[in-house]
Amino acid sequence: MADQRQAVFVRECERGHVVRPIERVPGQPGVQLDSPGPVLAYVLRDAQTGRFRLWYRSRVKYEANGRTYSDPNLYAESADGLHWERLNLGLYEWEGSKDNNIILPAGDLRGLIHEPQDTAAPWKAVWEHNNPARSPDGITREGYHVYTSPDGIRWQHSYLSVPHRARRPALPEANNSPVPIPRLGDTGHVRWDALLGTYVCDAKGTIPREGGNAVPTAGTPGGDGNHRFRLQMESDDLIHWSRPRMVTFPDRRDLEAGTIGFYGLLGTNYESMWIGYLRAHRLDPWKRVDVQLVTSRDGRTWSRACDRGVFLPLGPEGSWEPDYSEVNHAGPLLVDDELWFFYRGSILEQHRRTGPDLQKGLGLAKLRRDGFASLSAGAEGGSVTTRPLTFGGQRLLVNAATCDGGEVRAEVLTHDGQAIAGLSAADCRAVIGDSTVAPLRWSGGEIGEARALAGDGQPLRLRFHLRSADLYAFWVA
User: Fold this and answer.
1) What are the phi and psi torsion angles at 52 (to 5°)?
2) String of b and e for 179-214 (b: at least 16 CB within 10 Å)?
3) pLDDT over 90, % of the chain
4) How many CB atoms lie within 10 A of CB 245?
5) Are 81 and 364 in contact (CB under 8 A)?
6) What digits encode the pLDDT tens for the residues 418-428?
7) Each residue of 293-339: pLDDT tens digit?
C-alpha cells in the first residue's frame, strides 16, 4: 500500500457504500470532427506539452489512388480537451489532396501503446483489417496487424518483436502477416498492463441467444441474435498469445434486468489495483449500451462493483447520446485532481428505424480523483475496519469530504483488533472539509509509530470512523 491510493470498493453494495455520479461537461458533444461523427479510439495527454491527443476513426468511404477505402483513421490535438484542431499531416490523399489529418487510410484501431523507454519503437499499435476496403495498400490478409511509429502519427506495418520483454524467440520479419490470433470480434482491445508486466487483449465471444434475431427487421427494431461475453488473453511480445479465457458473462441477474451481453471490458491500472469499464448491452426495446464498473485485485479475475449500478449513464431521449456509450480506450486521464473521461455517445438510428446510420459525438465527463465510489455516513455516524495490512510507509492519508459538522477519524489496531496506545480514535486529529490529500495524525505520532510498536512486518488494521462524511480512498506514504 505504500505510496499507492487504495480506492474504496466492495463486491456488493452494502449500507453506506455509494457509487458516485460522473459529471458531464456542459455543452456536449464537445467535438464533431467529421461527418457522420467520430468513432472514439484513444485520447492521451502529452506529458511534456500538456496537450490532448486524439486518435479516432470516421465511418466514411472515399476514393484515392484508384481504389476504395473505408473508415480512415484520423488524428487531432487540443489544448483544453474541448476544442480540437485537425492537423494537415500530408500523409495520405483525400479528395485529390494530402492536406488532411489521415494517419492510416483504413482499419480499426485495437490497441495504442506508448513505451518511451523503447527508443527503437516508442509507439506501438494494433489495427484490425477485415476486408480490402478497410485495409491499406499491401495488406491482403485479414486479422490483427502490429504497427510501430516514432511519434504516434507516422506508422509502419511491422511484425514486431520486443527483445527487452519477450521470453520466446522472435519471429522473422514479415511485411504482410497478421498477428497469429483469430479475429476477436469488433470490440477487441490490446493494452500494456504495467502491474502484470504483460500485454493484455480484451476480446469478444458470442453464443446464440434463444429467441434472438441476428439483425433488426420490420416490427422487431434492435433485435439481437447473440449473447456477448468477454475473453482475456496475454502476451509477452504482441505476437505469441495465450488461449482466450472467459472473464465475464451475463448471469441470471443480468438477464432478469434486461442485460443480454457485454460489448467491452476496458481494464486499466489504477494505483494498486485494476478498474474496468464494462459496457452492458440491453434491449430497451432496441440495443442500448451503457457503462458499469468492475474491479480486480489481480488483473485477471473481475468483480462487479457497486451492485452493478450504472457508472456512465446514457443521455435522455432527445439528447445526442441516448443509446450507446464507450469510454476512451486509454482509460481516464488524471488532470490536476480530477479524472477526465472522454467518451463516445451515439444515437442508433438503424435500431430505432429512424435513419440509415449512427449519429456519434465525443463527450467529456469528470470525476474527482479516486471518486468512483465512497463509504458514506450520515449524522448518526458509522465505522469500517480493514483486513490486516502490511505497509512500509510512515503517514496515513485519506481522500475524504465532510459536511454539516462531519469528520473523519481513524484508529490503528493490532491484527487481532486491539487499539494501539496513542493511536486510538480519541487520539486522532479529525479531518474536516473536502480534500483529496488529507493527513491523519494522532497524539501518539504518525502511523509509522504503530509499525515500530507492533514490530516491523506485523500486520495492522485500520478502523475509520465517519460522521456526515464520504471516504473515497486511503493510503500510506
Assistant:
1) -90, 140
2) bebeebbebbbbbbbeeeebbbbbbbbeeebeeeee
3) 61
4) 12
5) yes
6) 999 999 999 99
7) 999 999 999 999 888 989 999 999 999 899 999 999 999 999 999 99
Q: Which domains does the chain have, with CATH numbers?
A: 21-368 (2.115.10.20), 373-476 (2.60.290)
Q: Of 147, 172, 169, 171, which is closest to residue 158 (Cα–Cα)? A: 147
Q: Are 103 and 89 in contact (CB under 8 A)?
A: yes
Report which DSSP code applies to 447. H
Question: Residue ranges of the alpha helices (H) in 323-429?
Answer: 349-352
287-296/338-348 β-pairing = unpaired
Q: Quickly list H helices, 369-464.
A: 447-454
Query: pTM here?
Result: 0.89
Burial 388-410 (b: 16+ CB within 10 A, else e): eeebebeebbbbbbbeeebbbbb
How far is the C-alpha of 296 from the C-alpha of 352, rounded, in Å? 36
Q: How far is CA 20 from CA 16, 158, 403, in A?
A: 12, 43, 16
Cell numbers describing residue 156: 509502419
Find how far residue 117's CA is from the centre of its chain: 23
* Total residues belonging to the chain: 477
**Residue 39 DSSP class:** E
Q: Under a CB-based contact definition with an 8 Å cutoff, are residues 201 and 241 in contact?
A: yes
Cα separation, 41 vs 413, in Å, equals 47
